[in-house]
Fold this protein.
Amino acid sequence: MGAKIECAKAQKLIQPYLDDELKARACAEFIAHIRECETCRHELETSFIVEYALKYLDDDKMDNFDIQGLLEEQIIRSERRMQRRQVLSVLMWTAIILMAVLIAGILIRLFLPDLFEDAAHLVSRLH
Ligand SMILES: [Zn+2]
């Protein structure tokens, strides 16, 4: 994460983002860019408004909608989802590594007890 993407790339991601088609990594890069880049943020706003207007064209509630607020909400939702995903993946990797260490430890003790004795021998001989 934190990888910078260019405006051209970010703007290509606007529609997929609105369609909720971005993979986690692309989404993270996109949001990071939107947070920093005024130009792309405006592009996103415009697309968001168009999208929203098309969806709710028949709805006369449209005037009351706070489009910027809605967009901000959507971005925050994306950020929360990414944070959750990040926490989950950190937890998952921690569990996997712990398991691997545990299993490796058990296997070494089961099948290579000589290794420890040899090492102990070596160490004691060095002293
Ligand atoms: Zn940009």
User: Anything to note?
Assistant: DSSP finds six helices and no strands in the chain. The longest helix spans residues 67-111. The pocket of zinc ion is lined by residues 7, 10, 33, 37, 39-40 (CB under 6 Å).
